[in-house]
Amino acid sequence: MNAQQEDRCVIAARAALELEDGQVTNLGAGIPMLVANYIPEHIDVVIQSENGIVGVGPVSRPGTEDPDRRNAGNLYVTLLPGGCYFDTATSFAMIRSGRVAATMLGTLQVDGEGNIANYEMPGRRIGMGGAMDLVAGARRVFVLTEHCTKQGAPKLVRRCTLPLTGAGECDVIITERALFRRYPGRGFVLEEVARGHTLEEVAACTEMAYAAADDVRLDAYG
């Protein structure tokens, strides 16, 4: 496992601890899809994929893939007992009616106002997929992302400059370096710093405005 893969696993494992018993959660493409591999045994959460699956289990092990069982990110997945498939119209009716408690998705940029830009940048179009519906319909929105781009530029920016997926929708940001939570009237608060990183390092690679909690946890995860 290379360093980038390790960072992504760190993010996914920490994000899994945010899941709540009994809730329906959507996991987006990229890092969020890894979260299903780290759900604690004592948490009974239902994973939804917007292409029409409820009851998604961990990603299939090599050699056990079912070609008819893929999530919205085109990964082979398992189906837990009681899980089912349905059409896209039903899936988005579920999302738009607020029945999805939380969504976890990646991003290209996120800023201090909770704005998310995750589908288009110059020379590269990922495609928004169901993200716009999800960030508007889910009751809580988690952004799971590497702290910086491959070129070292911050992803947590002063203001998003790329086309927005959702305005003011992000509630929690989890990176391989830190966890930020947004509170009404306060904006984002740095609550946790991952193992091997420091407050000073996080500040140096974060453009987004935030406050550090009085009891910020160091070596909190990782």
Sketch the topology as an H/E string, one letter per element.
HEEEEHEEEEEHEEEEEHE
Low-pLDDT segments: none
Helix content: 10-25%
Strand order of the largest sheet: 4-3-2-1-5-10-12-13-14-15
> Care to count the β-strands?
15
Q: What is the CATH third-level topology name?
A: Glutaconate Coenzyme A-transferase
CATH architecture: 3-Layer(aba) Sandwich
The CATH superfamily appears as: Glutaconate Coenzyme A-transferase
Instruction: Name the shape in a single word.
Output: globular
Tell me the major beta sheet.
10 strands, mixed
CATH top level label:
Alpha Beta
Mean pLDDT equals: 93
Number of domains: 1
Return Rg in Å: 17 Å
> Based on helices, strands and strand pairing, what is the structural class?
alpha/beta
Spatial gap, N to C terminus: 15 Å
The total of helices stands at 4
Which characteristics define this entry?
222 residues, single chain, 30% strand
Structure description:
The protein is α/β, with parallel strands linked by helices and 222 residues long. It has one domain: Glutaconate Coenzyme A-transferase (3-Layer(aba) Sandwich). The protein has 4 helices and 15 strands. The strands form 3 sheets. It has a 10-stranded mixed beta sheet, with helices on both faces. A 3-stranded mixed beta sheet has the order 7-6-11, with no helix packed on it. The chain has a two-stranded antiparallel ribbon with strand order 8-9. The two termini are 15 Å apart.
Brief synopsis:
The protein is of the alpha/beta class and 222 residues long.
Q: Secondary-structure map with pairings?
A:
Elements: H1 3-16, E1 24-27, E2 46-49, E3 53-59, E4 77-85, H2 88-96, E5 102-105, E6 109-111, E7 116-117, E8 120-121, E9 124-125, H3 131-137, E10 140-144, E11 156-157, E12 172-174, E13 178-183, E14 187-193, H4 199-204, E15 211-217
Parallel strand pairs: 1-2, 1-5, 5-10, 6-11, 10-12, 14-15
Antiparallel strand pairs: 2-3, 3-4, 6-7, 8-9, 12-13, 13-14
